C-alpha cells in the first residue's frame, strides 16, 4: 500500500479546520500575546502536518495533539508570531517523529509531556531540542 487516498481525510480536516485555529487563538489572547494565527498560518501548519503524516506513515483525525503543543508554547516567552510558528512547527515535527518511532508503545500525552520537559530543559533552544530526540528517541533520561 504505497499510495492511499487522502481525499476523505483532507475533507474531514478542512471541515474542522477553523475550530483548532480558533482555540489556539483564544489561548494566545488569554496569554496576552500580541499576535493571532491567520488562516494562511494555519493552512501552512496543516500542510506541514499532512507531510509529516506521509513521511511517518501516520493518520491523526484530531487536532488535539497540535493544540496541546500550541498550548504549552503559549506560556513561553515567544514575542513574535514567526517565532511561535517556528517553535510549533518543530514541536509538531518532533511529535510525529516520535509517534512513528513508538507506534502504540506510549501515549500521545507522554510524548507531549516529554517534548515539553525537554523544551524547558533546553530553554527553547530548538537545535538542542531536536538533537536530544535524535540522540535519545527512546524517551530515556538524556542527562
How would you describe this structure in keywords?
single chain, 143 residues, mainly alpha, globular
Any overview of this molecule?
- The protein has 143 residues and is an all-alpha fold.
- The protein is 68% helix and 0% strand.
- It is built from 7 helices and no strands.
- The radius of gyration is 15 Å and the shape is globular.
- 20% of the residues are buried.
Helix content: 55-70%
Strand percentage, roughly? under 5%
Shape: globular
Gyration radius over CA: 15 Å
Low-confidence stretches: none
C-alpha end-to-end distance: 40 Å
Series of secondary-structure elements, N-terminal to C-terminal: HHHHHHH
Counting helices, strands and paired strands, the structural category is mainly alpha
Largest sheet: none
Can you give the mean pLDDT? 87
Structure summary, number of beta strands: 0
The number of helical segments is: 7
Summarize the structure.
It is built from 7 helices and no strands. The chain has helices at 7-16, 18-30, 39-56, 64-74, 81-101, 108-121, 126-135.
